[in-house]
Write a structure and sequence with these properties.
Distance between the termini: 62 Å
Keywords: RNA-binding
Number of strands: 15
Structural class: alpha+beta
InterPro entries: PsdUridine_synth_cat_dom_sf, PsdUridine_synth_RluA-like_CS, PsdUridine_synth_RsuA/RluA, RluA_PseudoU_synthase
Number of helices: 10
Organism: Aegilops tauschii
Shape: globular
Largest sheet: 10 strands, mixed
GO molecular function: pseudouridine synthase activity; RNA binding
Pfam family, one: PseudoU_synth_2
Order of helices and strands: EHEEHHHEEHEEHEEEEEEHHEHEH
Length: about 375
């Protein structure tokens, strides 16, 4: 038996001359109920009640422990260990997997909230995300420490014309191997709603282009031969669409990323964990599992029945914004970010996370 629907009443402000059967309530709140036949006049303001969903979110927000809203000393030290570069304009972190990027009311341990609380380094405002990584994606994460640097870098990352100025390279382990060893994927993406609008999925857009498609371009390069049915590939996004690399790998190349159950579910139903090799690839000596330092349990690699997502932002090249801003150079909006001498470039490389390092050591440590 379905529960009865909840109906909400909508009110508008009433004038001092209006008197009705609800005069006492109306005089107190200066509101009157809107009838279905009433015509709205320009300038009128209406008042909507707080919905049940908003009330539930507020209740959940009030019950979240304060430790998740304000990082403690150990959490702050952990976040600072993730920082691999810092200057007056930017922060670069090596984000671990399974850390959400952008928080909303139910999510408070997201990277933007934690960084704002723990990585301000004396600034009045905390650093802001220039770009995003998926929750399960690891690797280099760029944050702007000032409003000026954030604005400039965000523009570089969202402009395909300036993709050569600020670039990222990802390493991914995919199931299968692309038909061509290298190429450019130009496949627009669009979003569809699932489960009555509660979830969404990114798919390749229809060629007609009438479904709100967004341009999405990715360069790729196969890094070596197929090993145990999987291949390492390098991906370079020229646009920054949501789930762009995952959808391009799964649907455009036909090679889903290992551990991507959202876009490669059917392939993972046939997933078989890789056997541990008996001998080293070249020396022929008995294979010894090379575990990352301090790690006891190897979960999430290709040795696991349920591997984690094997997608890592390995390399990033960005202009030295701190040097440029300190020289008070002019910034043009016509496609040329600086009118005078270009600032030198900064290049960063992030080591693989533990699960990908194990997969790399087992399958292809000799690849370049």
């Amino acid at each position: 038996m379905k529960s009865p629907a909840i109906c909400y009443q909508v009110y508008t402000e009433c004038s001092d001359q209006e008197v009705s059967a609800e005069s006492i309530w109306c005089r107190k709140h200066h509101l009157k109920k809107i009838k279905h036949s009433e015509v709205m006049e320009p300038g009128m303001r209406i008042h909507l009640p707080v919905s049940v969903a908003e009330a539930e979110i507020k209740k959940r927000y009030e019950t979240i422990p304060t430790a998740t809203l304000h990082p403690n000393r150990d959490e702050i030290e952990y976040l600072k260990r993730l920082v691999i570069y810092k200057d007056s304009a930017i922060l670069v972190l090596n984000k671990p997997p399974k850390v959400p990027m952008k928080g909303n009311l139910p999510v408070h341990n997201s990277m933007d909230v934690l960084a704002a609380a723990a990585l301000s380094y004396g600034n009045e405002e905390g650093p802001k995300l220039v770009h995003r990584l998926d929750r399960d994606t690891s690797g280099l994460l760029l944050m702007g420490r000032t409003r000026e640097s954030f604005t400039r870098l965000h523009w570089l990352f969202t402009s395909i014309k300036l993709a050569r100025t600020a670039s990222q390279r990802y390493w991914a382990l995919v199931i299968g191997t692309p038909t061509e060893s290298e190429g450019i994927i130009s496949a627009p993406l669009t979003k569809v709603l699932l489960d009555d609008g509660k979830a969404e999925r990114v798919i390749l857009a229809h060629p007609s282009g009438i479904d709100g498609a967004q341009e999405a371009v990715t360069e790729y390069r196969v890094m070596g031969p197929t090993i145990n049915g999987c291949s390492w590939i390098e991906l370079r996004p020229l646009t920054g669409r949501k789930h762009q690399l995952r959808v391009h790998c799964a649907e455009a190349l036909g090679t889903p990323i290992v551990g991507d159950y959202k876009y490669g579910w059917f392939v993972h139903q046939r997933w078989k964990q890789n056997p541990q090799p008996d001998f080293e690839p070249f020396t022929g000596e008995p294979y010894k599992l090379r575990r990352p330092e301090g790690l006891e349990v190897q979960k999430g690699s290709v040795l696991s029945k349920v591997p984690l997502l094997h997608l890592h932002c390995r390399e990033m090249v960005v202009p030295n914004i701190a040097k440029f801003l300190s020289n008070t150079g002019e910034w043009h909006d016509n496609g040329t970010p600086w009118s005078k001498e270009k600032p030198n470039l900064l290049r960063f490389i992030a080591p693989l996370p533990a699960h990908m390092k194990i997969s790399w050591n087992i399958m292809s440590s000799y690849l370049v």
